[in-house]
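In this section we walk through a basic example: taking a raw amino acid sequence and producing a predicted 3D structure, encoded as discrete structure tokens. The instruction is simple. Fold the sequence below.
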Amino acid sequence: MKSMVPLGLIVATFALTSSRFFDSAKVFRVKPQNEKQVNFLKYLARIKQLDFWHPDSAPHIVTQMQVDFHVGAHQSRSVQTLMEKNEIQYEILLHNLQEEIEKQFDGKRNFTGRHSYTKYNDWDKVGKENVRKKAIFMDCGIHAREWISPAFCQWFVKQAASTYGKDKIMTHLLDSLNFYVLPVFNIDGYVWSWTQDRMWRKNRSKNSTTNCIGTDLNRNFAAAWGTTGFISDDPCDETYYGPAPESEDETKAVATFIRNHLSSIKAYLTFHAYSQMLMFPYGYTFHKAPNHNELTEVAKAAVEALSSLYGTKYEYGPSATVVYPTSGSSLDWAYDQGIKYSFIFELRDEGRYGFLLPESKIKSTCKETMLAVKSIANYILSYAS
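The resulting token sequence is shown next.
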């Protein structure tokens, strides 16, 4: 096998010994019906410590949007009371966040150091560059708490290695394309989500003007950076875009690699969670991408392939339209670099578990997502120039 060979696998599997606990913390779901309720939720976010799961932060909230947020035990009762007084209907998705975190692992953790592709693992990197005329770049784990994302990249590499020569489609793809796979984009943040704070999102860089840590790496790319959409210039916010485009080591490294391989990279795939969506540019404008119709057809075919296995439903379309406008994303940056087949996956689920998708769901999630990736890869092989 020439396109991808496991080059070295360093596994450091450990228990989730977070110093931050979430006993009796709750996750709420609301759907504001009018501007008054939207404004109240934004006000609530200012006076209470709300950790938004979907959308990313309070400014993103609009009428009729499904909004999920987590509240600590010491504030959950008062938040419920305030929502009831303001006639906002709510659903409690998770009654005890700590219990759900612990249940995310199916059974006892594996301390043998053996790597499992149907469990959550902390690990280093795998992959081998082999120059090809066409290539696909894939990254996972840009946001630390989205654990199903790195799990998929690991699954992809495992399947590529183990089915080569057996699976005709995979063998053909690997013989004809080069895949660059970055399993954990935000490694420091990912490790922090294991050891200190399961809900951590950003990277772990220090900010010179404040004690608040981290930058949202998916707001740090030079694609209309810091200009539009729901972003933040406050280092304490979850969507802080950083002091400058590509200010972060992780962003700079990925951007540099892609720029150095632009002649061969024909597709960019980035994997997130959650919401079950497949999106393409743009995020920083509502204008359609020049090849909008083609991207729509590629996404439609990929979603149909994904849904064929278990019937999982995905939305698809431009990022700004399907979710909300934002700038500085890796998706738009890759597209603006000339990678005309750029897509972002939001993997399972739709909010029942949110970022805490159980290990029992990893295999099915990865198997269906693999079908979507194969669909896109086949299109790249056949039509990308």
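Looking at the output, two observations stand out. The CA atoms of residues 278 and 345 lie 5 Å apart. DSSP finds eleven helices and ten strands in the chain. In the next section we compare this with other chains.
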